[in-house]
Protein 1
Amino acid sequence: METTEQSAALTSRRSFLLRGAAASAGVIATGRLLADASPALGAGGLTPGDAAILRFLAAAEILETDAWQQYNELGGIQDSELPGGSGSAAYTAALEVLDSDMPQYIHDNTEDEFTHFTFINAYLASNGAATVNLDQFRTLPSSKATGAQQIGRLTNLMQLTVDTSWWTRYRSRTGNPDFGDTFPQAVPGLSQGQFPGIPRSDHDLHPPAHLQAIANTAGFHFAFIEQGGTSLYPSLAQRVTHPEVLRILLSIGPTETMHFQTWQDKAGNAPPLTDPTNGLVFPDLNAAPFGGEDFQTNLIMPEPTIFLRRTFPVCSIIRPTETDGAAMGALRALTANGLFIGQSSAFFAVLQDLATAADAARQGS
Ligand SMILES: [Fe+2]
């Protein structure tokens, strides 16, 4: 089945993915164990749709990992479990204003993302399907701040435009993005302009309010990234075919939700301030004109809201979970976030191919 899919889809753009599959032959031995433990998948292997959904998720996880690794190098815990970096004491201290456990949480979120793409690629390989390798696009510069590795990156954390409407989306009792509703920003300034989530160099370590604004930006960015995964997995799970692929999506997705829930709690601890270098304002979310049900910082449990039909009773749910166009929607959101500023047109072409294929997948095909 996969062979048919490959021969039909062997465009020049995708050929690198197939080479990537050959290059990752080393993981096939591991994958064989997975396949042996799951005879239910049988000789038929993955449907082309399941493979396409898993490949898009692998790509998303690789990109997520690249971003988290940069955060960990400067603001997490650098140890043998994660590659590189030696930490920025000043940046780490600013992150710890949000919670003294921030470095541990950053470390653990980073490690989780590594395991997600590694597992999905191994699972694809074990079923004879092409895996995803984006190494050729590791071309973006690293932070010049002391503590960061000087290596090529996939993502750009230094020109972020952070959509903070997830804050009010999960606090609304009446709106659901799947019904076309929109939600106000918690930090309007972050949703306009471009701001670093990590120090770009040691020059960014001063003055203190500037460095704290960078740490605050990171705090809201962490939750932005993880709420995306929180929606992406249930959205795509609705179109997978094989029960074991469904099990993978249903088992990884909620870990993204665990991350999101942690991060939205920490974002609420970001101190109100104005960055003296660029005017970026972090408002007091507990005081007018903010405050109340839509902004109060300790209201971190999802409010019940409309789901499926307005006539049903409200329900506390993940939102959005619309499956049509979910992969392309995720790609658009990450692009609008500024994560890919500086990437090549070839990079965008590959990501769009992966998203298009995932969104074309249908249950049973
Ligand atoms: Fe993940």
Protein 2
Amino acid sequence: MKPGRQPTGNSISQKVEDTEPLPVNSSSGHQPEPLVSPVPQDTMSDHPDSYIAYSFTEKNGKLQKINVPWKDPQEGEIVVKVLACGVCGSDIFVGEQQLPTGLPRIPGHEIVGTVWAVPSTEHKFKVGERVGAGWHGGHCFSCDMCIAGNFSQCRKQTINGIFRDGGYAEYVTLRTECMIYVSEDLDPAETAPLLCAGITAFNSIRHMDASPGDLVAVQGIGGIGHLAVQYAKAMGFNTVAISSSDAKRELAGRLGASHFVDSSKEPPAKALQTLGGAQMIVCAAPNEKIIEEVLMGLGPNGTLLIIALARASVSIPICQYLSIFRHLLFICCFGWLGGWLIFDLLLQSLL
Ligand SMILES: [Zn+2]
Ligand SMILES: [Zn+2]
């Protein structure tokens, strides 16, 4: 039997008896309170010798079912038993090697799970707690970006499921500095997509200039767009959903859109101008042709926010639009702090 394992299955196992408190300076004779509780915590639940994962093993190949040997977490890491992992469009970047991830690589960066093993040095996360992790997979705390607080732009950042193995697996080893707690009141499968698609929409929209009551359009009601409509509604915007499929009309209304534009039947820019012009257009579908078509739907000083990864070039005749919009932004996420707020918003909607 491995150290830390118990014979009765999946509950928390034996205590670690030799965990040391942080050293205290006793030269003055005064014993200050330790910064961290010295109470030892359980560091590992019962675990297998190996576990199943799905990995890209060759360029343009299919996901392969593999067995991964168990490895105990090192300082700064924890092992999470995966309850749910969302499927993101960028997972295919690994299979196609559009990013130099190296192969084999286990994709998946929308992870919700249970803390299963921690090193004895871990003082924040405890075995049995519900946690989540997204795209951002770790930062160094010491580069110029980190010192400025821009952790998601760390010079040495890593990305879950891209540059380190992700959540298409029974277990995943994650860095703690970019993890969050997840309420057990939330369904893991419904929550996981919020950790990439959700935070991309939420954190970008809330940092724009639009105010409650403004006309805000969301182009593309797919993985990101259907969440963007809900956030836009919750932020008090007069929300317009734009889709090339009339089949999305009913869904968009249910998600909170006040207006629906079928871009296969009417020019979306003209429809938006009829409504007064958009303060912000959120492009959430990777369709460069539609992005070009919606531009003239912006009102004065409007913002075009592109959060879709269109693979072809987007052509923008700058002179024609110079007086129309002042912001043209390509956003991924602004910091990880939004990870907390996003769940607050969801929890409030459940109350
Ligand atoms: Zn993603
Ligand atoms: Zn850094």
